[in-house]
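Problem: given the chain below (415 residues), write out its structure.
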Amino acid sequence: MAGGAASTTNYTSKGTTTGQKFLFPFILVTSLFFMWGLAYGLLDVLNKHFQEALSINKARSTLLQAAYFGAYFLMALPAGLLMKKFSYKTGIILGLLLYAAGAALFYPAAHFANFNFFLGALFVLASGLTFLETAANPYVTVLGDRATSEQRLNLSQCFNGLGSFLGPIIGGALFFGGEKVAGAESDLSSVQVVYIVMAVVVLLIAFLFYRTTLPEIATSEEGTVKATSSGKRLFAHSHFTFGVTAQFFYVAAQVGVGALFINYVTEYWEGATSEKASYLLAVSLALFTIGRFVGTALMRKIAPNALLTLYAGVNILLCALVMMGKGEMSVYALIGIFFFMSIMFPTIFALGVKDLGEHTKEASSFIIMSIVGGALVPYVMGAIAESQSTAISFIVPLICFVVVLLYGWKGYKTK
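Solution.
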């Protein structure tokens, strides 16, 4: 804070600032976390399904992650600029419409059994998710007391975990449920059904948002001097710039672990099928969701940055066990990684935008852009898996968690 002067950032809405005023918007926005969690949960199942149905290798299948998270990189700044000019509500509705359009495009992509068409559809869908995440993450942090912003965002992200948990269950049952039947693994009709239903549901949610009045959050500065933290250039805030870097590596780790999960289980757990691996992925994401609730509770007693550091350290050890490729033991270690990843995204996000005042929306865009780590790094893992082994490829998320640990240890501090 410039000059060491005391200053606080307060958040106000156009109207009453009571908890009741914020409760329904909080619930409605939290529903968005569930919807993009569902889209992500299906993504990792599609990797293995397309390897079988479209005869592509591991490295090529990770282009799904490249399309999905590449959209975040390209669309995050436009999303932030649009919301800065208009409102969070505008960004949310546009995001939902893009989400629905991308899901609908899965129908012709499956009809033509064209992998490149799927990549395009997924890019459109993920562009919509970019708008939703750019709006919803910072919106939740300011819908209430600044001191509990990390807890509030972790609570909303719990429902993201719930959607991610249901995705592999749906995908495992519909995409791999008939894999014992000759030729069933190449059937893409189940993909058509799932994504058309998603498109309809998302359109209904968009209509609900259109008919609902949301309080627009504005920032105001109070203090004895004007040279406050938010008066500085955005990139002069080291906790923000390191936060962007930490989020890049965290998302890279999360996406890489999920992308090769089913491959790892089928290769290192004797007799495991793709369907069984999908259900184990669902169990992993259930642990991810439980971890969010547990982490939110622990943050009442433990500082968010300290918990982030501890969880990153545990995941470094678990990745080392996964790299050993010791059958079921290593698979259990792989499943455990999800629990300790649970709090990382929302905690890094909340720490990164803390005390940024008028820069909050812009900062949100850059942190969402850092999700491009999920587009670039999984391909590296896929290439290592093809040339070495799937187990050895987990050296990549191990390195990523080292960066997260450093952010939680010292990089989060505001100056």
